Amino acid sequence: MSTNAKDTIDISTMETVYQKPITLTDTPMHYCPGCGHGVVHKILMEVIDEMGIAEQTVGVAPVGCSVFAYHYMNVDMQEAAHGRASAVATGVRRVLPDKYVFSYQGDGDLAAIGTGETIHTVNRGENILMVFVNNGIYGMTGGQMAPTSLCGMVTSTSPYGRDEHTAGYPLKITEMIAMLPGAYYVARHAVHTPTAVRKLKKAFKTSLEFQKQKKGTCFIEVMSNCPSGWKMNPVESNEWMEKNMFPYFPPGDIKVPASMK
User: Tens digits of per-residue pLDDT, 46-59?
Assistant: First the structure.
């Protein structure tokens, strides 16, 4: 590399186009290459940083790929048993009513072992944000079939594809949540394109603003890929998600208050 003075770049004259928020740690990434979890972390922490609420925020993460969240999110974090994040978040919120509280859960956690906690938390209208990352598979434990695995989807426990006659149909947990009176704002987004990322960021910010107003439960599903579990490269997995998962789990607002219509 040249060391001539004329080759030196004066960074003081350069415009900053992006700066890592203080709400993200400098921890090396644990997630598989191409996984959407890291993007979701980044967006959520950007919103918390921009709103200036890092010191007032508590996150709850359970078992599964979601468990890594406390490595990267530079806010107060509490780990929960598998499926119990919404119950723990309820306790945190009731003891510390002035805090912003969110749970961060995957589909195997929230829509399987945690279905009961999920339904009753929302039915009570607990004033929290529930972030639900859906990649249609158990990513951490070996790629098993999840409640949200599509019909015909090949997993380690459905090598011939999910058979709805024996395993039932993929669970549309977000649509179920939207029917409950305690759900104030319910939406489904993704992180596979810049446009999708911007929409998700707006939904996160809207949810935390509603929480400040004590409106009830905000529930945001995030469609994500799982290159390792799906046995695809990141580009293929994003294309597969858009072609196969979006028709069954269409992105967009599912339940919005009258003020947003």
Answer: 999 999 999 999 99
